[in-house]
Write a structure and sequence with these properties.
Number of domains: 1
Strand order of the largest sheet: 1-8-7-6-5-4-3-2
Largest sheet: 8 strands, parallel
Radius of gyration: 16 Å
CATH class: Alpha Beta
Strand content: 15-25%
Mean pLDDT: 94
CATH architecture: Alpha-Beta Barrel
Structural class: alpha/beta
CATH superfamily: Aldolase class I
Distance between the termini: 21 Å
Order of helices and strands: EHEHEHEHEHEHEHEHH
CATH topology: TIM Barrel
Shape: globular
Low-confidence stretches: 1-6
Number of helices: 9
C-alpha cells in the first residue's frame, strides 16, 4: 500500500508554454488562477537540443511572482544545461528560490549542490526517464527536491511516459527511508487526466505547461487539476 503524500500538493506552471509576447501578464494571470510556484525550464542547446531563456528573464519576472495579497510565489528553476555551477549562481542572483539540475550534467554533483545552497537557494536533482537513481545513495541528505522527468527533456508538449510512475514510486521509497522532507516533483505531459496517477505514485509537486497555458481559462484548468487531486 502506498504511503499518502505528507506535503500539500503544489502545481507549478511552466512558462516555457506561455505567450512570450506578454510574459509578465501570463505570469500574473496564472498566479491569480492559483499557481503555487512558477517553473522555469532553462535549456542551453547543448545538454538538450533546444534553447529557452536565461537569468535576465528570471530577474524580470521576479517582482511579478506575488499573489494579489503580496505573498511571494517561489520560482522553481530546472536547469537543462552543462556545465551547471555558473548558471546556477546566476539564477540564484536573479531571484530563483529552488534550483534543480541533472546529475550527468555536473562534473561534481556534491559541489554543484553546495554552490546552490551557498547561494541561498533550495536544491534538487532531476532524473531523465531512462536515467538510474544511484546518485541518490550518496547525496539524498543534501536535497530539498527530486524531479522526475516523465518526458525526454528539451521540448514542451510531449506525451507522458508511463514508466515514470514506477520511478516516482522508487524515489518515494528512498525519500521515506531518508527521513527528510524532500519534495517529489514530476514534469512532462501532466494533465488533469493523469495527475492523480502521479500523485498516487508519490509525487506532490506537478509541473504543467501546455495543459495550462494552452487553455483559454487558466482558473478553470487549475480547478480541474485540483479536483483531480481531490483538493
Amino acid at each position: 500500500m502506498k504511503t499518502p503524500n505528507t506535503h500539500p500538493y503544489v502545481i507549478a506552471p511552466s512558462i516555457l508554454s506561455a505567450d512570450f509576447t506578454r510574459l509578465g501578464a501570463e505570469v500574473t494571470s496564472v498566479i491569480e488562477a492559483g499557481a503555487d510556484w512558477i517553473h522555469f525550464d532553462v535549456m542551453d542547446n547543448h545538454y538538450v537540443p533546444n534553447l529557452s531563456f536565461g537569468p535576465m528573464i528570471c530577474q524580470a519576472i521576479k517582482p511579478l511572482a506575488k499573489t494579489s495579497t503580496g505573498v511571494d510565489v517561489p520560482i522553481d528553476v530546472h536547469l537543462m544545461v552543462q556545465p551547471v555551477d555558473a548558471i546556477a549562481q546566476s539564477f540564484a542572483l536573479a531571484g530563483a528560490n529552488l534550483i534543480s539540475f541533472h546529475p550527468d550534467a555536473s562534473g561534481h554533483v556534491h559541489r554543484s549542490l553546495q554552490v546552490i545552497q551557498n547561494a541561498g537557494c533550495q536544491c534538487g536533482l532531476v532524473f531523465n526517464p531512462a536515467e538510474p537513481l544511484d546518485v541518490l545513495d550518496w547525496v539524498i541528505e543534501e536535497l530539498d527536491l527530486i524531479l522526475i522527468m516523465s518526458v525526454n527533456p528539451g521540448f514542451g508538449g510531449q506525451s507522458f511516459i508511463d514508466s515514470a510512475l514506477r520511478k516516482i514510486e522508487a524515489v518515494k521509497r528512498r525519500i521515506e527511508s531518508s527521513g527528510k522532507a524532500i519534495r517529489l516533483e514530476v514534469d512532462g505531459g501532466i494533465k488533469p487526466e493523469n495527475i492523480k496517477a502521479a500523485a498516487n505514485a508519490g509525487a506532490d509537486t506537478f509541473v504543467a505547461g501546455s495543459a495550462i497555458f494552452g487553455q483559454s481559462d487558466y482558473k478553470a484548468v487549475m480547478k480541474k487539476f485540483r479536483d483531480a487531486l481531490g483538493k
